[in-house]
Amino acid sequence: MAREKKITPMMQQYYEVRKTLPANTLLLFRLGDFYEMFHEDAEVGAQVLGITLTKRSDYKMAGIPFHAAEQYIGKVLKVGMKVAICEQVETPQAGKLVKRALTRILTPGTTIEDNQLDSQRNHYLAAIEYDKAGFSLAWIDLSTGEFRIAHDSKPDDLLPVLVSIDPAELLLIEGTQENWQKHSHNNPVFEELIHFANSRSTSEQPAFQFDCDSGSQAVMEILGVINLEGFGIDKTHDALGCAGALLHYARETLRSEPKNLSSISEYSSKASLLIDPATLRNLEIFKSTRGLREGSLIEAINGCKTAAGARLLEQWLIAPERDIPELNRRLDSVEQFFGNPMAATELQSTLKSVRDIQRILSRMQNRLRNPRELGGVRDTLAQIPELKASIQEVASADPADTNPLDGLTNRLHELPALTELLDRALKEELPSKLDDGGYIATGYDPELDRMLSLTTDNKVWLADLESGERERTGIKNLKVKYNGAFGYFIEVTKSNLSLVPENYIRKQTTVNAERFITEDLKVKEKEIFHAEENSKRREEELFLGLIEAVLEESAALKETAAALAELDVFCGWSEIARRWDYSKPELNDTDLLDIDQGRHPVVEQMLRKDSQGLAGSHAFVPNGINISASNNQIHLITGPNMAGKSTFIRQVALITLMAQVGCWVPAASAKIGVVDRIFSRVGASDDLARGNSTFMVEMNETANILNNATESSLIILDEIGRGTSTYDGLSIAWSVIEHLHRDTEAGPKTLFATHYQELTQLDKHLNRLENYSVAVKEWNDDIVFVRQVVKGAADRSYGIQVARLAGLPTPVIDRAKEILEKLESDDSTVTVSSPTPTPVAKPRKKIKVAKDENQLGLF
Ligand SMILES: Nc1ncnc2c1ncn2[C@@H]1O[C@H](COP(=O)(O)OP(=O)(O)OP(=O)(O)O)[C@@H](O)[C@H]1O
Questions:
Q1: Which of 130, 235, 774, 826 is most enclosed, with most CB atoms within 10 A?
Q2: Which terms does the record give in the GO molecular function aspect (predicted)?
Q3: pLDDT at residue 540, rounded to an integer
Q4: What is the ipTM of this complex?
């Protein structure tokens, strides 16, 4: 029989904690100066962190030094796992098991530590519930205190915001993912949700945690209110269940209430410009198709100098507006800085010294405090008077009575008493760790000064002791030293031992020397330890007092931080507008989109970069558009490959979006009738990983557009139908256009780029369709791209010329020309001449318009 193994009390303690943890969690168990992992955790941890796996008696172990823990924890969170921290919560005593407790569970969505967050991006934890009542959503950023909910009967209307917030972690009711899988067959919403959940850390929680009543109660409790009317939210709001689940999870992981939540707000899809997930990807709003920030719209229009500014810009892009007064406030604010470049530049350079108050405050409220961040509050407050004065300079240049910047200035609080206190209390240079001590300025607290002078006196006493003893004993290299194990001692080298006086008490022998203490030194040592302990305790007390003083002003500080972020976005936008020659768009509620000399914000910057800042042959060619839902609703755009069709239709969508976040636009002028949605079907975004063929994706996206577009929407469609056979594709493209045109007075504004020449005939039949083309010049059988959008259809497609430009071998080009000629002459008997295969598609025939019925016939 196997001998029963004895478990040590410490390991017993370990197992007790381990069994309470959620799945996918590594337990870091504090043992002295190390966090240790045991058993399976050690194996996983060693692999994820690249550290050594060791074996002690019969279990595996892996450890990390406690002072370097943060960077290791960051690595674990990055792979989507959680980390539980079990700390020693009392001073260890020899022979006694030290008390330990779980102090924190760090998860990808709830971490608030500085070096585990991307300072430029919001960091959300989201909860979703999708049932018969509709789609509910709540999200929270624990690092800033932002807390929002949303409910919609149509999930399509909330997918845009869900995908845009891109949460680090997702909470779902137990069994949800299995349920989604069951319903996913040919249902794009479920497919999108499954893909969304699979691409981030997801935790399924018991259904009771999503209960609406208890959620509502929990939200009111945490915000300290008896109803939610003050936030414009009904107590029975369907998404309060999700909000409750978030709070429950936050409490579990922080091991205490989140203390930095002071408000909750509702996101309404009705008040926002909605951009469905496919369009967000296609238009490369938050990242390029290669998955990078570089090449995205957000990168092109980010001129922020502070992290909080960059995060606000992201928030505005997450929920673009339809509210014209709010958009005008932003556009007007940019104008103020645009007109005063000197002041704007000055403001921007001052903003560089502003610290991230939103996140610092959130950490302070949740017990993560350090002297350097406290100093950050001081340094930021010190900038406020100067910032206010600079804004006033800008604002006073405007003779109007009310200035768009007034509201912003009023939200910047100088807090003179707090500023003075922090100035007086803190040293200039501050440590990042509380334990390091030495952060309170001399003269702030007489008590601390007295304790510190004792320590200084003691150091003098020790120095005096060394020189005095050297003289008294005649031992020239006698030293007074200190180490952690023995405290203070006198060290004498072996060669001088004969000179050691009688009152020295031998303590330790080393290879070359003997160590001694004396009665006096022992007494002094006690005094020194006592004084150091006292001064450290006193310093921490004072630190807590200062934290209290900051937290008392948390509401004003929060408001100031938010205003600073706005200021940063406006200044950044004004600088971009100047640098790239943007103009202020005029927003209205008509059905018109009128852009004069528009440019693509990202391609324009890329071209300039490629030409190392020089204009000329690499300069972007501007193009305008005038399109309205009730007049010329559909623009059919033809033109050769590479001519610039996709770029043009995308730039129209991007300019509209930019105007609806309040940013100036790359155009000579723009009048934008506010749109409710932007849809796109652009490019071939293969989705094989999600089990869909290219054509299936194209049709899913098209179906979504046809089902959800309204007269106030903007649609850009690029080569619909090209993923299938010519006739099928043409027929689909044709009927899509007919459907969008509708028999009514107006329809969604649509830009339709195509290579199907046949469709250009549709203008004879559909009175709100106009033909446009991107012009090229022909020169000796070659083509030159001029990138200009002109009225009228393109006469031919020039595919073969473009293929030659791309470097296709000459024999292939010559043979292609031969085949094309035969096909165009309606001769279906193309001679087979190896190695070029016979074309499989039937030759294309011309479209005829059946004159008498006003109907189109294909054959
Ligand atoms: N207005 C413009 N000014 C300068 N360069 C442009 C402009 N429009 C497009 N380009 C350049 O031309 C390239 C091709 O443009 P785009 O992809 O829009 O062509 P396309 O007509 O849609 O081609 P295809 O039909 O093959 O998809 C772009 O990558 C861009 O670099």
A1: 774
A2: ATP binding; ATP-dependent DNA damage sensor activity; damaged DNA binding; mismatched DNA binding
A3: 93
A4: 0.98
CA of 645 to the centre of ligand 1 (A): 6
Query: Ligand 1 centroid vs 643 CA: distance in angstroms?
Result: 5
Annotated binding site for ATP: 639-646
For the segment 675-705, what is each residue's pLDDT rounded down to a tens digit? Answer: 999 999 876 554 444 556 677 777 878 888 8
Output the CA 805–ligand 1 centroid distance in Å. Answer: 14
Q: What does pLDDT average to over the chain? A: 87
Task: Evaluate the CA torsion angle 576, 577, 581, 585 in order and state its sign.
Answer: positive
Minimum-distance ligand 1 atom for the alpha carbon of 600: 1
Atom of ligand 1 nearest to the CA of 643: 21
**Which CATH fold topology does 302-415+553-580 show?**
MutS, DNA mismatch repair protein; Chain A, domain 3 (1.10.1420)
Between CA 302 and CA 120 the distance in angstroms is: 10
The rounded Å distance from CA 601 to ligand 1 centre is: 13
Beta partners for 126? 139, 170
Pocket test for ligand 1, best of 603, 604, 790, 801 (most atoms within 8 A of CB): 603
**Amino acid 4: pLDDT:** 56
Extract the tokens encoding 14: 């370990």
SS3 annotation, 814-846: HHHHHHHHHHHCCCCCCCCECCECCCCCCCCCC
**What is the structure's pLDDT at 723?**
63
User: Is there a shared CATH topology between the 114-271 domain and the 586-808 domain?
Assistant: no
Q: Which atom of ligand 1 is nearest to the CA of 647?
A: 18
Residue 725 has pLDDT above 70, yes or no: no
Q: Which residues of 303-321 are buried (b: 16+ CB within 10 A; e: fewer)?
A: bbbbbbbbbbbbbbbbbbb
Annotated binding-site members: 639-646
Distance CA 44, CA 55 (A): 14
Which helix (H) or strand (E) segment is 594 a member of?
strand 592-598
Domain boundaries, the chain: 9-106, 114-271, 302-415+553-580, 446-546, 586-808, 818-859
Residue nearest to atom 16 of ligand 1 (CA): 644
Is CATH 2.60.40.10 correct for 114-271?
no
- Cis amide linkage into residue 385, ω under 30° from 0: no
The pLDDT assigned to 296 comes to 95
- Pocket probe for ligand 1: among 646, 648, 681, 685, the residue whose CB has the most ligand atoms within 8 Å is 646
pLDDT > 90: percent of the chain:
58
- 163 alpha carbon to ligand 1 midpoint, in Å? 28
What is the arithmetic mean of pLDDT over 591-607? 95
- Model pLDDT for residues 299-311, shown as the tens digit of each residue: 999 999 999 999 9
Selection from 397-411, 606-620, 691-705, 764-778 with the highest mean pLDDT: 764-778
- Count of CB atoms within 10 A of residue 527's CB? 14
Assigned CATH topology for domain 9-106 = MutS, DNA mismatch repair protein, domain I (3.40.1170)
Under CATH, which number does the domain 446-546 receive? Answer: 1.10.1420.10
pLDDT of residue 93: 76
Confidence of residue 273 (pLDDT cuts 50, 70, 90): very high
pTM summary value: 0.87
Give residue 642 CA to ligand 1 midpoint distance, Å.
Answer: 5
Q: Could you please report the per-residue DSSP string of 207-272?
A: GGGG-HHHHHHHHHHHHT-S-SGGGT--TT-TTHHHHHHHHHHHHHHHTS--------EE--GGGB
Query: Is 657 or 701 the better-scoring residue by pLDDT?
Result: 657
Which residues form the pocket of ligand 1, taking CB atoms under 6 Å from any ligand atom?
A: 603, 620-621, 623, 639, 641-647, 787
